[in-house]
User: Which sequence fits this backbone?
C-alpha cells in the first residue's frame, strides 16, 4: 500500500508528539521576532541555572538578509525551526534524535546519517557550544549542540539543543526541490495547500520591505529606545520582559543590516551593544530566577553572576 | 622468589566510545594516544610490548600486547656514608648512619657494607614489590583519557569532565578481566558498540584479544589507513568504469576518511546545464560544502559526475546517491542564482560596497585597503618604469581586485575569491590582462605556487601584499611565534618570489611608499621604528629562503654585514659568494683568512694615507693591486655586477698572501709599522660594500 509522505504540518505534529512523549514541555512559538529558535527565552534563558528543563517548540525565524523575493527555491527570510532543548543532556540523546527522524517517516537505516563537526557561537548572545550539523544523504537538516556558555555564564549542567530546519527536512521527506512546493496540508477531499500557497506572497512583500522600504531612522531610534527600555526593565529586576527588548534590538539591527544602513565599523559596535544587553539580562536571570530554583547555592550563583557579568566584554 | 604471575601477560584492550569526534581532532588524538598509552604504563612499571591504536569518528582504541599482570618488582640500592663515618670506634651507628637508614626506610641492621674504590661504604637496599596491574590500570587509563589534549572540548550532562565530544561507553579489559575505569559517570565494562545503523550492538567482548575483531564484525573499519585504502580503491574503480579522473585534495580526503566508520564510495551526477556556471564555484560547492570529489574529463574539463563517500548501508546506495544528487542540484541552483545575480552589475559597481567589509579594525575596510593598494601600485608602476598601457591596466586591476568579495557567489563560496572577480571583469568588458590580474593577485598562495603571469598581475599582487604587511606592522599586528593570523610571512615570501620573477622594483623604496600611504590614510605610528621592523622582517624571510636553498649562514651574514637590505641584492650577493666558494674553494678561503687577519690587525684610526716611499716590494705590489681592485670593484658594484666585483677582490689574494708571508707588520719602527697598518686599512676598505669576508673565515 502506498503512503503519502507526511505533510509539513504532519512533520511538525509528529515531532511534537515524539518529544512530548520523551518528556518535553511542548511550547507554542514565542511571540516576538527572533533570528533563530535558540533566541527564544525558552532556550536562551532556560539554558542557565541548575534546574532540569525540557522543552520543544516550533519557532518562526526572521533573517531579513536571506530574503530572495520568493525567487530562490532554497532561501527564505522567514522560516521555521523545530527547537528542542533538554537540560541536562540525556545519555542517549543521539539515539533519541535518530528515533525522532523515524517518527517523521525517515528510515534511518536506509540513509546515510552523519554528524559533521559544526561548532556554534553567537557573538550577540555571548554564547557558544560544540556539536554538529546532521546530514541525511548530504543534506543538512539539523543543528545539534551542547551549550557550554550563554550570556558569558557556564551552562551547568549542560543543555543539548536540537534545531531542525523544518522546510529542509520536509523537502527531504517529500522529495521536492523547491520550498514552495512543500505540501503543507492535504484535506480529506484531496485539496492541497503548498508552502507557496501559504508563504510566497509573504516572502515577496517582506523581501521588498526588508531591503527597500523599512525606515532606517525609525529603526535606529527603535534600537536606541529599546536599549534604554531594557536597562530600565533590568533595574526593576525583571529579566524576562527585559529580554524582549534585547530581541527587539536584534531584529532592528538585522533589518538595518538588510537595508545596508550599518557600515562595517559600526556593525561591530552594534553587536557589542546587543551583547552587553544580553549579558546583563542573563546576569539578572541568574540572580533573580535561576537562583530561586531549588538545589542552588545562592552565594555560588551570585558569584557566578558577578564573574559572568564582567566576563569577556572585549 | 618471583611468583608465577610476574611472568604472566595478557592483552590490554581499551576503548573510548564517543559521539562523533571532529575529523582533524581525531587525527591528532590518534597520534597522541600512541605515545600516551605506553608512557602511562611505563610510569607505573607495568611491563608491556607493542601498542596499536585504532580510531574511528566514534571510538579511540588502544591494544597493548603482552601486558604484565603484575608490575615489575624493583630493588633500589642507595650508597650512604662511608663506614668510617657511619660507625664510631666502638662500632655503634652514628647519627649519620641512623639518618641515612631512616631516610631510606630500612633498619640499621639491614645496612650492608661494600667496598667501592678505596673506601668502604654502607648501602641500603629497598625492595618495591610487584603489584597486580589490574589494581593500577583504572587510574592509569583514566589518566590516558585525561591526557589527550583537544583544540576544543566540552562538558555534557551533569559531568564536569571534559572530552572532545561526549563519551558514551568505555571498554577496558586485561585478558578476560574487566578493568573498571571510571570517567564522566561511566564505568568501563566489556560491551562495545558497532556501526550506528549497520550493527549498533551492544556486543559483549569475551577477552581483550577479541575487541578489534568484534568491532570489525560490527561493520566498523577500525583504522584510518584501511578506510583510506577502501576509499582510494573505490575511487579508482569509478575512474576505470567512467573514463573520468578525480582529484582528491589532501585536506578533504583526510576529513572524509574520518567522517565514516564504514566507507562506501558512490558516484552521482548533476544536470549538465549547471556546467555553464564557472567550474570553480561548482568545485567549491562540492568539495568545501559537501565533501564530494569532483570528476574531470581527461582533457581537464569538469564533468557532471562526482564522488561521494557514504557511511550508510551499501544496500541502500541508490537512495543515498539520489539524496546527494538533490543536494548538489540545490547547491548548484544557488550558485547559478548568485552568479547570475552578480552579473546584473559590472564589477566596478561592487567596489564601493567594500566599505561594508572590515579588513582590520584599525586599518579600516576593504575599500580603504583598495585605495591604499592603488596608491602603492602607482608607485610601483613608476618605479618599474612600466609601459603606459601596462601601468594603466595594473591600476585598474588594483582598483577592482577586491570587488568580488561582496558578490553573492564569493560570500557563499569563499574559496573562489579572485577567480570570480575575473569572470565578472570579463563580463563587464574589462580587458583580459586586467581580468587575469584580478584572479591572480592572490598568488603565490603557498610555497611553490606560481606568481602572477605578467607584470599587471605582479604589480597588483605586490601592492596588495606589501600594503597588508606595512599596514599591519604600522598598527602593531606583528606576527609572533606561531601566531601569524594575516599570513604575513607568506605575503613577504610572495613579494620576494614576485621580485625574483622579474618585477623590477626596489623593495626598500616601495616599503617607504607603502608606509607613507598608510600614514596618509590617517594612521599614526612611529615611522622609523616600523620601517626598521618591516625591513628586518623581510631580511629574516630572505635569510630563511637562502638557507633553504643551501647557502651558508656565514655567507649571508657576510653580505648583511655590509648593511645591504634590499632583498634581491642580498640574494644576488649571497648566491655569487656561494658560487665563488664552490668553484674556487681554496682561493676564497685564503682570501677570507687574509681579510680576517687584516681586519684584526688594522687600526681604523690611522686612516689609509700611507707613504709609498716607506714600502718594500711586497707592500708596493699589494698597494698597486689594491688601487686597481678598488676602482674595478667600485665600477662593478655600480654596474650591479657583483660577480665581477668578487673576481676583482680575489685577485688580491696573491699579493696579500705575499705581504703577510714576507713582511713583518709589527715592525719596531713605529713609522713603518703604522704605514703598514694604513695599507691594511686600505685593503680592508676595498671589501666594504661587497661582503664582510672575515665572517666566512672559519669555514
Assistant:
Amino acid at each position: 500500500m502506498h503512503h503519502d509522505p507526511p505533510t509539513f504540518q504532519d512533520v511538525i505534529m509528529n515531532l511534537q508528539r515524539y518529544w512530548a512523549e520523551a518528556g518535553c514541555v511542548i511550547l507554542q512559538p514565542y511571540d516576538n521576532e527572533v533570528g533563530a529558535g535558540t533566541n527564544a527565552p525558552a532556550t536562551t534563558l532556560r539554558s542557565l541555572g541548575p534546574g532540569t528543563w525540557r522543552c520543544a517548540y516550533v519557532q518562526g525565524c526572521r533573517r531579513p538578509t536571506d530574503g530572495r523575493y520568493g525567487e530562490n527555491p532554497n532561501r527564505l527570510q522567514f522560516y521555521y525551526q523545530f527547537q528542542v532543548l533538554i537540560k541536562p543532556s540525556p545519555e542517549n540523546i543521539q539515539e533519541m534524535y535518530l528515533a525522532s527522524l523515524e517518527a517523521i517517516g525517515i528510515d534511518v537505516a536506509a540513509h546515510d546519517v552523519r554528524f559533521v563537526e559544526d561548532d556554534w557561537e553567537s557573538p550577540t548572545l555571548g554564547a557558544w557550544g560544540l556539536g554538529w550539523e546532521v546530514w541525511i544523504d548530504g543534506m543538512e537538516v539539523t543543528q545539534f549542540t551542547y551549550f557550554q556558555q550563554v550570556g558569558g555564564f557556564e551552562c551547568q549542567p549542560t543543555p543539548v539543543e536540537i534545531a531542525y530546519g523544518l522546510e529542509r527536512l520536509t523537502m527531504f521527506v517529500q522529495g521536492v526541490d523547491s520550498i514552495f512546493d512543500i505540501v503543507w496540508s492535504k484535506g480529506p477531499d484531496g485539496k492541497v495547500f503548498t508552502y507557496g500557497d501559504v508563504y510566497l506572497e509573504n516572502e515577496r512583500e517582506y523581501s521588498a520591505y526588508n531591503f527597500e522600504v523599512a525606515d532606517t531612522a525609525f529603526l535606529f531610534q527603535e534600537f536606541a529606545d529599546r536599549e534604554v527600555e531594557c536597562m530600565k526593565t533590568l533595574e526593576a529586576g525583571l529579566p524576562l520582559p527585559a529580554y524582549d527588548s534585547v530581541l527587539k534590538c536584534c531584529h532592528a539591527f538585522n533589518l538595518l543590516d538588510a537595508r545596508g544602513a550599518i557600515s562595517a565599523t559600526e556593525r561591530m559596535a552594534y553587536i557589542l551593544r546587543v551583547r552587553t544587553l544580553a549579558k546583563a539580562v542573563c546576569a539578572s536571570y541568574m540572580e533573580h530566577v535561576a537562583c530561586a530554583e531549588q538545589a542552588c547555592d545562592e552565594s555560588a550563583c551570585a558569584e557566578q553572576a558577578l564573574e559572568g557579568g564582567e566576563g569577556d566584554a572585549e | 622468589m618471583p611468583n608465577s604471575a610476574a611472568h604472566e601477560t595478557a592483552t590490554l584492550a581499551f576503548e573510548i566510545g564517543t559521539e562523533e569526534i571532529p575529523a582533524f581532532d581525531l587525527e591528532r588524538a590518534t597520534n597522541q594516544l600512541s605515545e600516551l598509552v605506553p608512557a602511562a604504563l611505563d610510569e607505573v612499571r607495568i611491563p608491556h610490548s607493542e601498542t596499536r591504536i585504532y580510531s574511528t569518528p566514534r571510538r579511540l582504541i588502544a591494544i597493548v600486547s603482552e601486558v604484565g599482570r603484575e608490575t615489575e618488582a624493583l630493588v633500589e640500592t642507595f650508597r650512604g656514608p662511608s663506614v668510617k663515618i657511619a660507625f664510631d670506634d666502638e662500632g655503634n651507628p652514628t647519627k649519620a648512619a641512623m639518618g641515612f637508614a631512616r631516610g631510606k626506610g630500612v633498619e640499621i641492621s639491614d645496612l650492608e657494607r661494600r667496598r667501592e674504590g678505596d673506601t668502604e661504604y654502607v648501602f641500603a637496599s629497598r625492595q618495591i614489590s610487584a603489584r597486580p596491574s589490574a589494581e593500577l590500570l583504572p587510574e592509569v587509563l583514566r589518566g590516558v583519557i585525561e591526557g589527550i589534549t583537544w583544540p576544543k572540548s566540552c562538558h555534557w550532562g551533569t559531568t564536569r569532565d571534559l572530552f572532545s565530544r561526549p563519551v558514551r561507553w568505555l571498554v577496558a579489559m586485561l585478558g578476560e578481566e574487566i578493568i573498571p575505569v571510571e570517567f564522566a559517570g561511566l564505568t568501563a565494562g566489556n560491551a562495545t558498540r558497532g556501526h550506528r545503523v549497520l550493527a549498533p550492538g551492544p556486543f559483549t567482548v569475551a577477552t581483550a584479544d577479541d575487541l578489534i575483531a568484534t568491532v570489525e564484525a560490527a561493520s566498523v573499519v577500525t583504522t584510518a589507513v584501511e578506510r583510506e585504502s577502501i576509499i582510494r580503491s573505490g575511487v579508482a574503480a569509478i575512474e576505470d568504469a567512467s573514463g573520468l579522473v578525480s582529484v582528491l585534495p589532501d585536506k578533504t580526503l583526510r576529513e572524509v576518511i574520518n567522517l565514516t566508520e564504514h566507507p562506501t564510495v558512490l558516484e552521482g551526477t548533476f544536470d549538465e546545464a549547471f556546467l555553464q556556471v564557472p567550474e570553480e564555484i561548482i568545485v567549491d560547492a562540492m568539495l568545501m560544502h559537501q565533501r564530494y570529489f569532483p570528476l574531470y574529463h581527461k582533457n581537464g574539463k569538469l564533468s557532471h559526475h562526482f564522488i561521494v563517500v557514504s557511511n550508510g548501508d551499501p544496500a541502500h546506495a541508490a537512495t543515498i546517491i539520489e539524496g546527494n544528487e538533490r543536494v548538489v542540484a540545490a547547491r548548484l541552483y544557488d550558485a547559478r542564482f548568485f552568479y547570475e545575480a552578480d552579473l546584473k552589475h559590472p564589477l566596478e559597481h561592487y567596489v564601493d560596497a567594500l566599505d561594508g567589509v572590515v579588513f582590520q579594525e584599525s586599518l579600516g575596510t576593504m575599500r580603504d585597503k583598495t585605495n591604499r593598494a592603488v596608491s602603492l601600485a602607482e608607485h610601483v608602476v613608476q618605479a618599474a618604469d612600466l609601459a603606459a598601457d601596462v601601468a594603466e591596466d595594473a591600476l585598474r586591476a588594483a582598483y577592482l581586485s577586491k570587488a568580488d568579495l561582496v558578490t553573492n557567489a564569493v560570500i557563499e563560496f569563499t574559496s573562489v575569491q579572485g577567480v570570480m572577480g575575473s569572470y565578472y571583469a570579463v563580463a563587464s568588458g574589462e580587458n583580459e590582462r586586467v581580468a587575469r590580474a584580478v584572479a591572480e593577485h592572490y598568488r603565490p598562495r603557498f610555497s611553490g605556487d606560481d606568481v602572477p603571469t605578467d607584470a599587471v598581475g605582479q604589480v597588483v599582487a605586490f601592492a596588495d601584499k606589501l600594503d597588508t604587511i606595512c599596514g599591519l606592522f604600522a598598527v602593531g599586528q606583528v606576527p609572533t611565534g606561531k601566531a601569524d593570523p594575516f599570513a604575513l610571512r607568506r605575503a613577504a615570501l610572495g613579494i620576494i618570489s614576485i621580485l625574483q620573477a622579474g618585477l623590477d622594483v626596489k623593495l626598500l623604496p616601495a616599503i617607504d611608499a607603502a608606509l607613507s600611504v598608510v600614514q596618509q590614510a590617517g594612521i599614526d605610528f612611529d615611522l622609523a621604528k616600523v620601517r626598521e621592523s618591516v625591513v628586518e622582517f623581510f631580511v629574516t624571510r630572505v635569510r630563511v629562503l637562502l638557507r633553504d636553498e643551501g647557502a651558508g649562514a656565514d655567507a649571508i651574514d657576510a653580505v648583511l654585514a655590509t648593511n645591504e637590505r634590499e632583498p634581491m641584492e642580498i640574494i644576488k650577493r649571497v648566491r655569487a659568494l656561494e658560487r665563488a666558494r664552490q668553484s674556487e674553494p681554496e682561493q676564497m678561503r685564503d682570501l677570507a683568512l687574509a681579510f680576517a687577519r687584516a681586519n684584526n690587525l688594522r687600526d681604523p684610526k690611522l686612516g689609509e694615507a700611507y707613504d709609498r716611499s716607506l714600502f718594500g716590494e711586497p707592500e708596493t705590489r699589494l698597494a698597486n693591486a689594491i688601487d686597481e681592485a678598488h676602482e674595478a670593484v667600485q665600477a662593478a658594484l655600480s654596474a650591479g655586477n657583483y660577480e665581477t666585483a668578487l673576481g676583482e677582490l680575489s685577485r688580491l689574494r696573491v699579493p696579500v698572501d705575499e705581504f703577510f708571508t714576507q713582511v713583518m707588520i709589527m715592525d719596531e719602527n713605529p713609522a713603518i709599522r703604522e704605514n703598514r697598518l694604513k695599507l691594511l686599512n686600505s685593503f680592508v676598505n676595498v671589501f666594504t660594500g661587497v661582503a664582510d669576508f672575515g665572517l666566512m673565515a672559519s669555514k
Remarks:
- The longest strand of chain B covers residues 9-18.
